[in-house]
Design brief:
This protein has an eight-stranded parallel barrel with strand order 1-2-3-4-5-6-7-8, surrounded by six helices. The longest helix is centred in the first third of the chain and has 18 residues. The protein has 14 helices and ten strands. By secondary structure, the protein is of the alpha/beta class. The N terminus is likely disordered. It starts with 11 loop residues before the first helix and ends in an 8-residue tail after the last helix.
């Protein structure tokens, strides 16, 4: 008998995920590498962890913006193309290209998107200021015959934060990330350097406001908000605290990693607890047995509004490589339609 035997034939993702829920499901960690040796190690680590967890639990983003030496952009892009083309079908590999106003932007799009459209999960565009920048990037994708690729965008200035809701509304945008360092620098010294630290980025009012605006814009339009880096990459406790804060208090469902040591703390911080997974499994199972009608569970009323939340708990558990109870496993081993 299958794990889902006796349950409603409808998959929770079909029944529950409507306009109020995020349309995109992405790994909770986005790991960045800009140097060839680190890129190779990152792709190898991703392959090893796919074997360990049975799913791709983090993206690898190969960086052409900060990774490419000045004057060597074309060679760097060619190297990125060669590496990404070697990744397995189970891998999720992306590339951060140069900003739309950079001289290398058009060449980046033509070479990287043009040659890797079937290999990449998305293209990351930095320093997006407005919807016009998204439109420019989309046009470049279409010109490279890569119209199926989603765009992830970096929000890195006060103006970009002002335009966050309009940017998130564009159908090509799948995720928005907060660029902490550039955002602080864009204030001309009005935000102290401590605003870039693991402490200051969660306490300075302007930085905190920007993070909340981006998260809110993403949730308003069913996009994925991705939290910025923590530069203290050898401090596991600091990394874990920051990731938990981003996930539990600021509404982020994804976070950047800039060192392999940060990947597992991010996965752990964004994962539901064992108790949360157990409760969600029981509630979804009871709801399915009742054909998604309202139920009473442990003295509380539940209906589709709360079922949606508990289904998303199970999705996040799967995305972070948590071991799911037997009753929930079938939902992630079969197509949703």
């Amino acid at each position: 008998m299958s794990a889902a035997a006796g349950l409603s034939a409808a998959h929770p993702a079909q029944v529950l995920l409507g306009a109020q829920a995020g349309a995109a499901t992405l790994p909770v960690c986005d790991h960045y590498s800009g140097v060839e040796a680190r890129m190779r190690k990152s792709l190898q680590l991703q392959a090893e962890m796919i074997e360990e967890f049975g799913a791709c639990v983090f993206d690898v983003t190969l960086d052409c913006e900060d990774g490419a030496p000045v004057g060597g952009e074309a060679d760097h892009a060619a190297m990125v193309v060669a590496l990404a083309a070697l990744a397995s079908d189970k891998a999720r590999v992306a590339v951060r290209i140069h900003a739309v106003d950079h001289p290398a932007f058009d060449a980046d799009m033509a070479v990287i998107a043009g040659k890797l459209s079937r290999h990449l999960s998305h293209i990351m565009v930095p320093k997006v200021e407005s919807v016009a920048d998204v439109v420019r990037a989309e046009q470049a994708l279409l010109a490279a015959s890569a119209g199926g690729l989603p765009l992830h965008v970096l929000i890195e200035s006060p103006l970009a934060v002002r335009n966050a809701f309009e940017i998130a509304a564009h159908p090509r945008v799948q995720s928005m990330s907060f660029g902490l360092m550039d955002f602080v620098s864009a204030h001309g010294g009005a935000i102290p350097a401590d605003g870039m630290s693991s402490r200051g980025q969660f306490t300075h009012p302007l930085v905190l406001r920007a993070k909340l605006e981006i998260a809110s814009a993403c949730h308003a339009h069913g996009k994925v908000p991705s939290h910025c880096v923590v530069t203290e990459f050898n401090d596991t406790e600091t990394m874990t605290t920051a990731a938990r804060h981003a996930a539990r208090e600021l509404g982020y469902t994804r976070m950047w990693s800039i060192h392999p040591n940060q990947i597992r703390p991010i996965l752990a911080a964004f994962a539901p607890t064992g108790d949360e997974i157990e409760s969600a499994t029981k509630i979804i199972a009871a709801a399915a047995h009742s054909d998604w009608a309202p139920i009473s569970f442990e003295g509380k009323l539940h209906d589709r509004a709360s079922y949606r939340y508990f289904w998303q708990v199970l999705e996040r558990a799967h995305q972070t490589g948590r071991v799911l109870p037997y009753e929930a496993q079938a939902y992630f081993s079969a197509p949703t339609h």
